[in-house]
Task: inverse folding
């Protein structure tokens, strides 16, 4: 795991990260219309490297290792944390981090702490609520209200967020439109 082995920082990068088993691979596959791009596993902790996917020769979708429940040694988990922190704080073309949160669970301290780390380091982030199809409309409203209340105890306002379902495709267009809009505001010169 070596950040220096990442591609040249010549295009915007959008990193996707969350607790293990949050549905990250399914979301990435849904966004890219490629069911086999990110490996889906019933076993948490499958992603153990930084995976860059070049999208339309314009930007990188970055699949990061999950945090939390991965069944790896304590030593390996610490290496992941250092590796991810180094990537987040040194990657000059990191344009936005999408923090994935399973909408079936109350706010988890590990997610809130990770967002705090991003804020303290001035790293732009958005929240992607996954597995929306598992809730009905009233459950979804209750969840969103509670999550927002929790966030507003730590933040002045709610960061941008997206409600998604890899099963139904909900949230896909909004996420891709957000990336396209942000891409218009960044300028990473192409390699000569």
Result:
């Amino acid at each position: 795991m070596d950040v220096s082995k990442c591609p040249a920082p010549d295009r915007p990068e959008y990193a996707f990260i969350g607790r293990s088993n949050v549905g990250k691979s399914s979301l990435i596959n849904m966004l890219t219309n490629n069911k086999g791009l990110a490996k889906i596993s019933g076993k948490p902790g499958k992603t153990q490297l930084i995976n860059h996917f070049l999208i339309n020769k314009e930007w990188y979708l970055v699949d990061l290792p999950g945090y939390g429940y991965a069944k790896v040694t304590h030593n390996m988990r610490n290496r992941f944390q250092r590796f991810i922190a180094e990537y987040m704080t040194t990657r000059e073309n990191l344009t936005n981090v999408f923090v994935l949160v399973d909408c079936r669970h109350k706010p988890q301290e590990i997610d809130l702490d990770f967002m705090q780390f991003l804020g303290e380091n001035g790293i732009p982030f958005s929240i992607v609520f996954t597995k929306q199809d598992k809730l009905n409309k009233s459950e979804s409203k209750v969840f969103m209200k509670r999550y927002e209340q929790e966030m507003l105890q730590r933040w002045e306002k709610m960061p941008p967020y997206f409600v998604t379902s890899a099963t139904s495709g909900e949230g896909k267009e909004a996420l891709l439109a957000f990336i396209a809009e942000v891409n218009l505001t960044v300028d990473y010169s192409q390699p000569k």
The longest helix spans residues 74-90. Strands lie at 13-18, 51-55, 59-63, 94-102, 125-130, 161-163.
